[in-house]
Amino acid sequence: MNGGQRLTGRYQAWVVGLLSLNFGILFFDRNALNFLMPFVQPDLHLSNTQVGTLSSALSLTWALSGFAVGRLSDKLGSKKPVIVLATIAFCLCSFVSGVATSFIMLLGARLLMGAAEGGVMPVSHAMIVSEVAPEQRGLAMGVAQNLGSNLLGSGLAPIVLVPIAVAYGWREGFYLAAVPGLISAAIIWFTLREPPKDADEEAHPAVTLRDAFRHRNVVLCSLISILLVSYLVVCWTFMPLYLTKSRTFDPETMGWLMATLGISAGIGSFVVPAISDAIGRRPVLAFFSFLGVILPLGALYFQGSVWILAAIFFFGWALNGVFPLFMATIPAESVDPRLTATLTGLVMGTGEVLGGVLSPFAAGGLADVFGLTAPLWLMLGLTIGAGALSLGLVESAPKVLARRAAKAAGGQG
Which H or E element spans position 139? Predict the structure, then answer.
């Protein structure tokens, strides 16, 4: 087999599907504490501040690990072993969460869990860049990052874990969450190959990280990551409170309105990137970022049927489908593909630290001063800012660039 040769379309689909499943299982583990917290908090006597600290701690080590592990993988040229080892480590941390008897022990498990999982997605994206044809790259990255994580981490996790906690206890929920990842790690090890190095790339020196950040797209994608990760985290944190306290919806109605977001993200995981493969990254990222304004505006002002409000939530949350584009696809297409894991880890980590860790504190402070409408207005500003930054991107979609080149050649002819 020649270096860089891609295998069949069936194998490419298997790579994407398996990596999506693996990341979904890890997200199932990551979200387990959120759904089990009503049982964990009284048992371990945790304060609300400690509950928030557990979430922020995982986001912080996730971000730092995403860059460090991605950078190490790119330097070593090794992908499959990194994913397998990180998955096993993450599952072991889930088991440790189940045996925790104090806040400090649980905090340590969450810190280690974030460190283990942070590198999985950047390295998975690097594997996809190596194995999947460029014309399907956006779709493949979207499915790998968003489909499994939303179906398993957001959809299946509460349905499975809460009944187990009620029947057997919250610790058993963590033990159960640890098992599937060990299985997926074994399947990855035995069925996926280590992607070969491309002969053409080997003949040319890799672009340095400093050179990569001279490209406008990499800088803009990092800024967009901060804004849109903040948008997501603020929505997850404060929308349930706003719907129940300010809009006075009952908890059940609030629950399925929020569940609409998971359905939207699952569908958007392959629809939005596929559209970007066809018409371009720049217009899709800008359009769906601006479309995100309808979610906070709908929650603030729409007073009609709750079914229409659910539709507003569904379409507004479609911006979730652009996350793989600015976190991985556009940076990888804009500079050297050999830096995919590094750039994905850096862009993702920037969003996690400045968005996932800091934005809830900012939104909470605004809510204390101006009320629960303030976080929604913050969401509005964040998505408009992301849309504006998207307009400055340089187009990178292979199909679009090929059409432009063909048109230019035809014009010269």
Answer: helix 137-142
The total of structural domains in the chain comes to 2
Q: Which sign, positive or negative, has the C-alpha torsion 49, 55, 58, 61?
A: negative
Last residue of a domain, one of 196, 214, 233: 196
Statement to judge: residues 190 and 227 lie in one domain: no
Contacts of 335 (CB under 8 A, 6+ apart): 207, 211, 212, 215, 217, 218, 343
Tens digits of residue pLDDT in 370-395: 888 998 999 999 999 999 999 999 99
Residue 80 buriedness (CB in 10 A; 0-12 / 13-18 / 19+):
middle
Cα–Cα distance for residue pair 347/218, rounded to 1 Å: 8
Nearest in space to 325 (alpha carbons), one of 372, 379, 363, 288: 288
Please state, in angstroms and rounded to a whole number, the distance separating the CA atoms of residues 355 and 362: 10
Is the CB of residue 359 less than 8 Å from the CB of residue 227? no
- The model's pLDDT over 221-238, given as tens digits with 9 standing for 90+, comes to 999 999 998 898 888 778
